[in-house]
Amino acid sequence: MNTLPAYDGHRPAVSTAQLLKRGERLLEPDVYRTELGGRPAVVKDYRRYRGTPLSPVARLLVRREARVLRRLKGWKHAPALLGTVGGLALGMEFVPGETLSRVQGASHEVFDQLQLALSRLHAAGITHNDLHGTNVVVSAGVPVLLDFTSAWRSPRWLRNGPISRQLRRSDMKNLVKMRQRLTGQRPSAEQAALLAEPGWVQALRGTWKRLYRHLKGQA
Ligand SMILES: Nc1ncnc2c1ncn2[C@@H]1O[C@H](COP(=O)(O)OP(=O)(O)O)[C@@H](O)[C@H]1O
Ligand SMILES: [Mg+2]
């Protein structure tokens, strides 16, 4: 991969028709549809950070996402990586379809597949860590996971540690929530028990909430 839309020093010159998401918040990429090597592609473009102090962080995000996609090569539940350009842009296969947040009436079948896909991902030692409706595209009935920016691959010896377990639980929790919202299916008693947070997580979350409220009160 070696061609990207021209860049005017501030933003890539892409039409609104091609733009999938404008990076508004800190370290969010511009995401747009284009063609690379004659294939429909999606580019996540962080070039606006070139020459800024945040450039190394943006490069790291590109590298991390590329690494996970490379690992998942050939898996039907993730887009194929096409490559990276200049370290600040990542190109992948365009997955046609609707995101789960826009799809009308997602089926149980799609969620069953998604649940299985997530279990496979976890078994490979990877957690997604940002599982919500806009990060899943349903393409010809197959759910495809997108946006591996926050994904994390634990080394083998850490996979049964409390942090990895918590990340997996959190992914599953997001999935169960999506499922309930879109299909009305409530988690089974077994699932609910599996997803219940251990005491230390609840304590940590509670402390963080109190601290956050306190800080907000001061602002
Ligand atoms: N490979 C892809 N195929 C189709 N649409 C995509 C693809 N990658 C991203 N998108 C669309 O672009 C949006 C933003 O991409 P995403 O990777 O989630 O970026 P961000 O990290 O800014 O959330 C997604 O919600 C989805 O609608
Ligand atoms: Mg996203």
From TrEMBL:
The keyword Heme does not apply. SUPFAM superfamilies: Protein kinase-like (PK-like) (SSF56112). Its EC number is 2.7.11.1. Signal peptide: none annotated. Keywords: ATP-binding, Kinase, Nucleotide-binding, Serine/threonine-protein kinase, Transferase. It catalyses: L-seryl-[protein] + ATP = O-phospho-L-seryl-[protein] + ADP + H(+); L-threonyl-[protein] + ATP = O-phospho-L-threonyl-[protein] + ADP + H(+). Residues 54-184 form the RIO-type domain. It holds the Pfam family RIO1. It comes from the Bacteria. GO terms for molecular function: ATP binding; protein serine/threonine kinase activity. PANTHER family: SERINE/THREONINE-PROTEIN KINASE YRZF-RELATED, SERINE_THREONINE-PROTEIN KINASE YRZF-RELATED. This is non-specific serine/threonine protein kinase.
